[in-house]
Structures are given as C-alpha cells and as structure tokens.
Amino acid sequence: MALTPYNHPLFEEDENKPADPYVAFTTGEYKGDQDGNGHLSTSRRTGVVWAAQGERRRKMDQEFGDCNICTSNTDGVDFLARNFVQSLIDGQWKYVDIVNFWALDAQPWCECERCKKLGSETNRLLLMIHQVAKVMKEAQTAGRLSRQVLLHTCAYHETLSPPDRPLPADFDYDTIAVTLYPIGRTYTHPFGDPASIEINQPMAQDFLEWAQGGFYKGSVCIGEYYNVSRLRILPVVYPHIMAADIPWFYRYGVRHFQYMHTPTRNWGTWTLNQWLMAQLLWDPSADSTALLDDYFGKFYPGTTQSTRSFYEHLERAFSNIKAIKHYVELAESPIKSYCLSNELNGMAKNLFPLKSLQYEESHPVTDDGLDMVEVMSEIELARKALNQSLLNCTDAIERRRLLEDEQRFAYGEATLHLFNHLVRACIFHHQKLPDLARIEVASARRYADNLRSMVEVVQGAGAHASDVNGFEATQLKPAYEFLIKEYGGNGNAKTE
Q1: Which terminus of the chain, N or C, has less C-beta within 10 A?
Q2: Which pLDDT does position 118 carry in this prediction?
C-alpha cells in the first residue's frame, strides 16, 4: 500500500486520494515501503531523503534542501551516515579530523508522526549524529577508517535548548561535542548577566542546562558572533564583554571557543579583539585590566591615555549593534526577534519597542542598554579622542596604527550617522513633518555617498561578512531609497 496522501500511478489502492503533485519527479524512484518498516524505500537506492511539512513532502539531496531530513527514517539516516563515512575514508574528507555535523541553518524540521515521537529537534539531531557515530565506529573497528574523527554539532535556534529526555546509553561523548551558538544574544550585557532579562537570560539558562549535566553529559563549546555576517566588519570592540564572558564560560566547563567571521586583513580596531581574546583563552583567570594596561601602553606608547579613551567610547557606541544592525531574540515577547535596520526598511511607526534600545535616553531597572542618542554621543566622543591621538602622535609606527584605526572607525562612524538620520527621517515622515524629514534625508545622503567610497574596509571577512562598499554594507537601501524618493528633492539615490 502506498504511504502517501496522494494517488500514485504505481499503486492501485489510492484512487480515492488526490493526484500526486510530485509524480513528475518521483515516478521511477518511488517504490513504497518495500521492507514494511514504515518508511519509504527510495532513499536507500537514490540518495534522495524526504521530509514531511504539513501536507507537503520536501526533498533534501546532495545540494542541501529547504527542510531538514526525516531523522526517524533510519534507512535515510543510514544512507547519509555510510556515504559520509566513505568520504572520510577515501573521499573529499579523507584528511579531515573534526567535522561540523550540523542541521540546516534556520530551516524547518520534518513533521511526520514518527519524528514527533522522538521529541524535540535537539533530541532528533543528537539521535541522528549518534547513528552516524555508530556507523563511523563500525568502520574504525573494521579497519576501514584508520583515524579518530570528532563530530561537532550545534545548539542553535530550534536546537538551542538541551535534550528533554535521556540519550542512548552508548552515546559516544568522546566523539561527539556540542557547540552552543547564541546568535540572538545582545552585547549590551555579558552573557550570564541576570540584568539582561529581555534577551540573554533565556539563552544563558539553556547554556547552563547543557553544561551542568542534564541529559547531555559531554563537552560544550561556544561559538560567538563578534563579527556576525550583517555587522560587516564594523569597528565593534568587546573588551568588557570578553573579560566577563570568557572566564564565565570557562567556569562552567567550556574548553573550546570560536567566533565568526574573523577579519583576515586591515584589522585596525579589531586588533584589540584578536589580541585580548587570545590572551583570555590562554589564561581565563588573567586580570583583564592589567592586560589592557599592557596593550595600550605598548601598542600606543605616545598616545596611551587618549587612545584608550577612544576605545572606551567606541566600545560603548557599538555595544547595542546586534539590535541595531543584526538582530536579537526575545523569548518572552510577541515580536520574537528585533532588528532596527529591518524596522527602518519597513518604515515601521514604532522603531524602538525594546527596553534595551530606545531613541531617547532611558534607564530601565533591567535590560538597560545604550539608546540611540547615547550611541551618537559616544561616537562623537570617540571621534574627539581619536583626533586628539592623531594630533599628539609623533612616532611613525604608532601613527600608522592610529590611521588604520581611523579608517575602520570612519566607516563605523558614517554607518551610525546614516542610521540616525534615517531614523529621524522615518519619525518625521510618520509625524507628517516633511520639512524636518527633508533636512534629515539631506544629511543621510551625504553619509551614504561617503560610505559608497569605502570599499577595502568592508572586505576581508569571507563572503558572509563582506560587501561591495560601505553603503551596501549598511543594508539600509530600501529605507534610504524610499526616503530619498519622498524627501530628496530633485536628486535620486546615487548609483554606481
């Protein structure tokens, strides 16, 4: 009997069902449930794995797909595992020792009844990688795979919460590790700070449940988002966040730490991030204040005080950048996630629904982050301090370092000014104050034109975190073009 809700031409017992919309590409592949195990038999032969999404069947093949595979389909997972292990033996991964074995990024999961019975998405992911590890162990025992290979999977989005039921007794914790990726976090507060109720605390609780021996008993690693794709190598610095977070993670058993996406050239202000992270990973108990004293004293010996002041204001100016330019997740809020640039591009009437990010300065009891007017004040103070360092510097090597800082800072400075003027123009647009909106749009145009001339500074962090120029990197083109059209006078948005 056919195991689908459709009338398939290969079967005689489904004529009362609607026509199969997938028949064009399943005829010739589809063989039904040949072994009577409750699963379709096509995946073992063809390498095509199916998943159920409501009334739809979705396909995942060698080039990914739009849905995670049916993890309850043991034939399909076995097919995946054996091809994967064969690749480790003599294929394109024959020199690989550590594999990131992840689910699809932000894609749905199979909704078939058998998958639902396996539990949460986290349970299903871990059971799948457990099956893969067993096939790999078979190959090692048989001598076909002659090296140890570690499998790292990720706690991310729908798998961020730990498993809610026991894992198999033979789950191989020596082979399998989990990296927690709290992509929805904010950097207004350290990760474990109880004051970040609105954003960080639910994710911090998930981490603690992973790390403190719930149903999962293995290693937990951390994947940070210091230069997550949409940040586009802005001059964000994290000395206070690193000084709090890295020892905190270490205290709860984390021994592996990484971030994405690492700039590979033209570091400028990013030099501090790279250096401090390396120092704290080497010794999480190190005195971060003493480390910073050493850094600024040696890297900027002639302008130590003013340059350190520049970095302090810079850190504050970009502390809320995740909510401004990427996004933050809100577990207890009906809006679920928030990003100022998305709200701007949609010309939302209420641009600032979060306690941690308002336009005017505010100081709630919890979740206090820098508001937009404070951000702009800090960026102006940073500029003043950097200009002072450039004026006072007499050493050629130190001056080159400051100029590298200035190049990256100028990009970030212009980006925040563009955000600010577009925010104000959007507010005046909804208040039906066209004269005021026109003033803001004129200022926005100047910063947009300046950003278009910045090319090198937004490249060098891989395809995900680089861009064509500084204006494209802001990802504010829809808002900018709308406001230019409405209030830009006789000029249109400048194009390359």
Answers
A1: C
A2: 93
